[in-house]
Amino acid sequence: MTSKELLASTHAAEPTGLSPALRALRVDAAGDWHGAHDLLQDENGADASWVHAYLHRKEGDLGNAGYWYRKAGKSPASGSLDDEWHAIATALLAGC
Questions:
Q1: What predicted TM-score, i.e. pTM, was given to this entire model?
Q2: How many domains in the chain?
Q3: Range of the domain at 52
């Protein structure tokens, strides 16, 4: 699956086998920031932290985003939110 296919899946049944981080990206892409954030509340690990960082950056809470980027071991993103979404999705899908 590619990031574009994941994005397109927001209008169809959820693909099986998605990690919580990928599920959160998919829910966010469908326009449910809060639902995406809720999926990650109890998740640990670098992948979930990276998506959590993206979500807080999208929200405009850059201080909180910075915390999650550090926890994920990633540098804060500086490009567009769309570019970051696809970069995260591509990296996480490569690990599936």
A1: 0.89
A2: 1
A3: 3-9+17-94
